Amino acid sequence: MTYSLAGDQPDPIGVAVIGAGYWGPNLVRNFQATPSFRVRWLCDLDLDRARRVLGGYSTITATDDYSAILDDDEVQAVAIATPAGTHLDVAMAALRAGKHVLVEKPLAATFDDGRRLVEEADRRGLVLMCDHTYCYTPAVARIREIVRSGELGELHYVDSVRINLGLVQRDIDVMWDLAPHDLSILDFVLPDDVTAVAVAAHGADPIGAGRSCVAYLTIELSTGAIAHIHVNWLSPTKVRTTMVGGSKRTLVWDDLNPTQRVSIFDRGVDLTMPEELGDDERREALISYRSGDMVAPALGEREALRAMVDEYASAIRGRRAPLTDGRSGLRVLGMLEAASRSLANRGEIVEVAR
Amino acid sequence: MTYSLAGDQPDPIGVAVIGAGYWGPNLVRNFQATPSFRVRWLCDLDLDRARRVLGGYSTITATDDYSAILDDDEVQAVAIATPAGTHLDVAMAALRAGKHVLVEKPLAATFDDGRRLVEEADRRGLVLMCDHTYCYTPAVARIREIVRSGELGELHYVDSVRINLGLVQRDIDVMWDLAPHDLSILDFVLPDDVTAVAVAAHGADPIGAGRSCVAYLTIELSTGAIAHIHVNWLSPTKVRTTMVGGSKRTLVWDDLNPTQRVSIFDRGVDLTMPEELGDDERREALISYRSGDMVAPALGEREALRAMVDEYASAIRGRRAPLTDGRSGLRVLGMLEAASRSLANRGEIVEVAR
Amino acid sequence: MTYSLAGDQPDPIGVAVIGAGYWGPNLVRNFQATPSFRVRWLCDLDLDRARRVLGGYSTITATDDYSAILDDDEVQAVAIATPAGTHLDVAMAALRAGKHVLVEKPLAATFDDGRRLVEEADRRGLVLMCDHTYCYTPAVARIREIVRSGELGELHYVDSVRINLGLVQRDIDVMWDLAPHDLSILDFVLPDDVTAVAVAAHGADPIGAGRSCVAYLTIELSTGAIAHIHVNWLSPTKVRTTMVGGSKRTLVWDDLNPTQRVSIFDRGVDLTMPEELGDDERREALISYRSGDMVAPALGEREALRAMVDEYASAIRGRRAPLTDGRSGLRVLGMLEAASRSLANRGEIVEVAR
Amino acid sequence: MTYSLAGDQPDPIGVAVIGAGYWGPNLVRNFQATPSFRVRWLCDLDLDRARRVLGGYSTITATDDYSAILDDDEVQAVAIATPAGTHLDVAMAALRAGKHVLVEKPLAATFDDGRRLVEEADRRGLVLMCDHTYCYTPAVARIREIVRSGELGELHYVDSVRINLGLVQRDIDVMWDLAPHDLSILDFVLPDDVTAVAVAAHGADPIGAGRSCVAYLTIELSTGAIAHIHVNWLSPTKVRTTMVGGSKRTLVWDDLNPTQRVSIFDRGVDLTMPEELGDDERREALISYRSGDMVAPALGEREALRAMVDEYASAIRGRRAPLTDGRSGLRVLGMLEAASRSLANRGEIVEVAR
């Protein structure tokens, strides 16, 4: 919050949540918890569902008509948690009605749709934000700091695993369901000058679901480093681990270990490059191993969604791009589309659109 | 052992170990521990190294001359633990001298070299065995039983991770160093009618070691199932996990969890296929989720290398192919070579030689 | 719920929550989530605190006057989440006003206070329930079934650890703060004919807080089995594990391992008793070791507090004792008081009051 | 080793190992591995057992006659790994024959026996060492440094758990079998001015083995801090954890986690003591919580037994008391005897003999 004087508390931002499915209720709860927003509507095509989410003790209005929201002058901002295929229409209508827009990941169903939203928001000077929730966890916020400060040295590799017995989605494969988390985190923590160049993806649909339920993405980064993501709906065990290997240190994030989510290892392999290279044997001799301490930094306990909602308010108030703006959503879409094309071509490497 | 009457204990098999580096001492120790063998020699080009391995209390003879071993009529069997590049020459000489041969993995430096060894052993009626040690752990022996019995149902996917801060090898990349373990296990546990068809491999050499230090292999199996292997020399943490997903159950092997190495989960996603398929919505409706118990079977505590050595003796005595014979070593080489070609071609999918 | 016909849904039970501190908000949330109750009031001496808990979107009334609640005929039930020292007065007043009463653990500040509440509720035919929340987790519900069914055989020992960096309480020591959880679970899962006979307690106040921050309780059970509880406010790591050893099997409950909370081990030591005992050596010979499988049963994901609230409704409707009735709260008080006396006497063993 | 010049390598110390049961073979292996010793004999009343331990390739002599060893002038040192009940006789005979003596834990069957050995060794100027192996692990060596340096601040509590499905011993209970490890570690890491004052012990023999199979020891330290030890032969899972809580930091040693055995937490509860104490409320206000980083120091990979053997050689050569000398063994016996008396008196607190 940028307002610090007592008594100078700004008026809350009127907000409406569109979509009362899996994610919408979490948005409602978090918007309610902060004085920065005043929730005015919860909208769903299925009015009963919206009512059930609000329950029997709420003063918020349920509706199935989102034009009522767009017409409500007290609504300055919307949050869209509908299926990805509807993001373009709903978000575009909201932008055209002059509302700031927060969209659940992925930003849109295609890179081109996403670009249209980014351009519209730019044109109108409105905030377009993508709800990359993980970027607002204390762990990822800290990882971003650590990676971008150079504390790990030069980035060597990123390895991410996100597997679980998950809901087989009706409209999207496991890559579009789960990898946006890993890709948005990757995009968030990378230094500004490191970009994704190309993607290869392999997948399988062993249960005959009609779409990949297991997938592996390999991402070539502009520095020659490699990132790899494993997503899987069929795993009986839940794993959520990301390793970020650097030339000086390696960081391991285990999101399921609440007492030690982030560990920074001063262990690794060093290679001292002699000035005149050539003699292989001599080169070998210069490999050495570090086996130093491990440090697990203390992290706060802030709820990610609450921090995301605060960033939305702050971006609206400051008329600035939020940390996870439409452009970051667009970069994630670029990687996802390349991955889909690769998957359709037996793992062929595909350049990432910009 | 096939001899069970007291007094009917056969004469021990004279054996020589060639190579006193990392693995040779383990072979010496295990050959010593069984009455099936009598260790006669430990050979290394570096005689001092062989002597140091034997120590000051041993009656075994150290030598740096392996022709002495080949000339020793009391030696019926050799065990070769020298670098892979020398396997062809040393093993071929031993076979030609009429000795049974056990070779440390990989069987040879190339698929063609391996094939020559297999053919030579066949021609001479000698045992050619590959020391795929993991196949002799109680865990993998049990996994083989479980997978091949159909207890897991149809095989859906295999995912294997073998990462650690490892020695960067002088002559081979991380794939040739570590993936033989995973590939030999995969080969060992798969039903006979399931074969590896093609491989794609992605890797990186972020430290400039001159060879890949991180690699990912994707293997297409003949049934359409997928296998994936992650090997990494640079990881500060050690992970050795293999997941075998099936249509009925999923098995997780965590080799670093001694009290629960193997877990069998009755959890998963089921898809009931209606007779006339067509209506997508109807198909969706038939996805269901199982969330049953998990069972961790009791496993024995047998040392793998001891069991491997016993299998070698038994194969020699029975003049039969050992469980991990030259052909299994050859299949592993086929996958490794395809992976190397893929790696050199930016992950292009490559068919596996047979 | 005992009403199953559509349209036969009974009127909700009017309920008021007294105490808006740490636990009260959880009660409010769970009462709201079930149609069995209608929340009418949230009461706290600090009216602002009650208002903050309700937030800006709620139709529930905040008050700081609990006599208003007692006078409200639409309130049939109250839930008391105030400090233990106030339980007697508040609960007694509520009972005398004819309300059913749910009390946060411990039931009261002393065994005698607890007994007065039990007797008052009995006299008036009202439900008196103690919120032993853990007893309503799927894990503990299952453990109760398993232990009482005899699946573990004869009970040998119970070992419970509940340690964490916890809030040093103003009015009670670590035993009164944390051990009620373990004691209520113990009371809940034990077969009806097994009772606590005596308690020894050791503790320390190393930080000079004026009360024990670390404590160990040893409980002698009527069968000769032993139970032991370790509670600690100063531990930097969080552990919540209970082991229940039996003659046939041993159960381990790890509440912090969501994917495998309960594990049942078919491992143990067996002693076959020969008919004529006497020869020690012969007795020794009859010790044998089982090393069988481990099974982790699938457990539901029900929220404990929701299940507790449902049990409260069901007990009120059925005019029956709830699973964790006042008497169970009283038995827990008996053990706590014995532990306190032991602690004051350097660990002297103290009989448990009945 | 105190000799550092090349060529100045001293003659090896002739050593004999007495007892070829569970522990003896480990001693033989480690004495063999160091040039400081020359193993001359392995002695066991069961000559065949000694021969089996040596195997078919060893130049060491097996014997069942320990007087032959005592008469051998080339033997300067013995290592005794026989049952505790025989320690007094065997060790006393060895000392009287002028041999240095290493004894497996516990030093002797009683405190008085132990004292006689200590006095005899003192009188003769011979090394008497107790094989408290854990004290020579890199983890415990480091813990000793950390605790004694004051890095943890003032010692608050020690909590140790050592449970497993273990061999029910014929001659001793679980306390005498397992607690010597924890007690010797406690004795080793404590600052010199902190001593054990009194012990209370609770135990159970639920399987009717004739001796306690589960036991809990509470130890009052001279500073008012508390130590607690849980040992158990019946647990289906293996736990070996020790927590050392201090006023500044808390250390957790998990011996079964090879990648993170020791963790030092900068988390805890602080109490700022105002000069004039009196007002309880004010005191409460001064409790604060630290939630800082955790550091897991890098530890070497040295085998403990090898380091113990080196310390034995070094003490003999330097004619100095070894780190775990007879006196430390005696202090452990003092605590064990007090625990046994307490156990026999239903947990009564018993003073520790000095």
Describe this structure in words.
The structure is a homotetramer of 354-residue chains. Chain A folds into two domains: 13-132 and 304-324, Rossmann fold, CATH 3.40.50; 135-302 and 334-351, Dihydrodipicolinate Reductase, domain 2, CATH 3.30.360.10. The first copy, chain A, has ten helices and 15 strands. Chain A has helices at 24-33, 47-54, 66-71, 87-96, 111-124, 138-148, 174-189, 280-285, 304-318, 326-344; strands at residues 13-18, 37-43, 61-63, 77-80, 100-104, 128-131, 155-165, 196-204, 214-221, 226-232, 234-246, 250-254, 262-271, 287-296, 350-351. In chain A, α4 (87-96) packs parallel to α5 (111-124), α5 packs antiparallel against α10 and α7 (174-189) crosses α10. Chains in contact: A-B, A-C, A-D, B-C, B-D, C-D. Chains A and B meet through β7, β8, β9, β10 and β11 of A and β7, β8, β9, β10 and β11 of B. β14 of chain A pairs antiparallel with β14 of chain D, so a sheet runs across the interface.
